[in-house]
Amino acid sequence: MQQLFDFLALHEMTIYFVILSVFVGIEVIGGVPTVLHTPLMSGANAIHGVVIVGAILVMLNVDPTNYGALALGFLAVLLGTLNVVGGFVVTDRMLEMFKKK
Fold this sequence. Notes:
Blueprint: H1 2-10, H2 12-30, H3 34-60, H4 67-96
């Protein structure tokens, strides 16, 4: 338990920064008009490609016996991939609306 408190004390400012970033992100995305939401999310999905590459690089440097880190890395790659693929599907559907019949 002491290790947890030491970790929290050592990374206190980082934790505050992440919490503040979550609230700022919610406010910024919540203020986007509906018309711009899909193109904005399409651009955000491209960023998840970078997250996938980063998660793979981190997993390559993890000790093979550290199953917790490997599981979190696998989860990051899986969820990032799902978000990228889902974003492309939504963008494709949106672009289909503007094609001539």
